[in-house]
Amino acid sequence: MQATINDALTIPGAPDLHGLSFRRFRGESDYPLMVEVAEASREADKDEDVTTLESITRAYANLKNSDPYHDMVMVEMNGKLIGYKRVMWWSELDGTHIYGHFGKLVPEWRGKGIGTALFRHSEARLQEIAKDHTSATSRYFDVGSSDTTPNLVEIIESEGYTPVRNFYDMVRPDLENIPDCPLPDGIEVRPVQPEQYRAIWEAEVEAFKDHWGEWTTEEEDFKRWQDHHLFQPHLWQVAWEGDQVVGMVRNFIDEDANKKFNRKRGWTENISIRRQWRKKGIAKALIASSFRLHKELGMTEAALGVDTDNPNGARQLYESMGFQTVKTYTAYRKQF
To answer: Could you tell me if 269 and 208 lie in one domain?
Structure first.
């Protein structure tokens, strides 16, 4: 008879609810259970980020600075998974270390103190991790919420976090009347080839260096970039001048979300222009060509996300291209 591994966890401050227990992550066998929890949580929170077995498998195969066997808590009620929490950390370009945490909890077990106990347990785990980071110039806890999760916002603010940045989801509700925005002379869009991935990735990393919250990259990040479940280079609009990448729109189509919400949406996302080519109308031209591409593929709307305080006027550009704000996300931080 095979011995059972004791992976039970004790969470200080957890409510005394009959049948409630906590354990460690058990590997791939947890993925289908996590999908069920994530989907139940998504529906309650009016979220449109659909979780599938493929997406969660790929994501957890490519985690950075997060070991799920030590950095996750699985929540069960009478042996059934009802939630989970995970922590991670990253270093920003100025040496600031950010210690993030997020979780999912099915709606029927919210408001009972489980979330608050997990919140504090996550902070304790992150403080333990941070002990080894002697080079950090400063340290912040980081957590996010949206305008459709007021209960989460209440917990975040009660735990002493302050809102530091807002982000919008924006949608162009149709793909009609696409503006004619030609690229400048000498700049052209070329079909993406695998041997170009490295140059494209490096150009994107460079272009985002002056954006808020950008973190340091390493070689393994190049692989993670390619292993994302929405990596669709055949849809990208990448502009070149000679052998130099000028900028890009890394389009994708999320078929799972489109099916779930009975829509035909294409994403004009990951928009970046390298510094020396900015203010020349290149981003506008690439977005317009992305609209045409999505329309040819049968899409009827386009979407993207944006930092509301983007230093390069991205939000104003997107509004001029017909995008409208549909949802707001907020990043909260607390120094420690």
So the answer is: yes
Are 142 and 64 in the same domain?
Answer: yes
For residues 74 and 148, membership in a common domain is answered with yes
* For the chain, percent of residues with pLDDT exceeding 70: 99
Given strand 244-249, what is the order of strands in its sheet? 188-189, 237-241, 244-249, 271-273
Give tens-digit pLDDT for 33-72. Answer: 999 999 999 999 999 999 999 999 999 999 999 999 999 9
Sheet holding 301-307, edge to edge: 8-9, 20-23, 72-77, 80-91, 97-105, 139-146, 324-335, 162-172, 301-307, 265-267
Do 127 and 230 lie in one domain? The reply is: no
Q: Are 170 and 306 in contact (CB under 8 A)?
A: yes
Task: Tell whether 112 and 27 lie within a shared domain.
Answer: yes
Integer Cα distance of 64 and 297 in angstroms: 34
Q: Tell me which DSSP letter residue 229 carries.
A: T
For residue 2, tell me if it sits in a domain.
no
Please provide the average confidence, as pLDDT, over all residues in the chain. Answer: 96
Q: Are residues 236 and 281 in the same domain?
A: yes
CATH code of residue 136 = 3.40.630.30
> pTM for the whole thing?
0.93
Q: Is the pLDDT of residue 2 over 70?
A: no
Residue 1: its pLDDT value, please?
38
Question: What does the pLDDT read at residue 3?
Answer: 43
Among 251, 234, 244, which residue's Cα sits nearest to residue 274?
Answer: 244
> 1 in a domain, yes or no?
no
Q: Which of 271, 267, 265, 274 is nearest to 299 (CA)?
A: 265
Determine contact, residues 167/305, Cβ cutoff 8 Å: yes
Pair 278, 152 in one domain:
no
Residues of the domain holding 23: 8-160
- Count of structural domains within the chain: 2
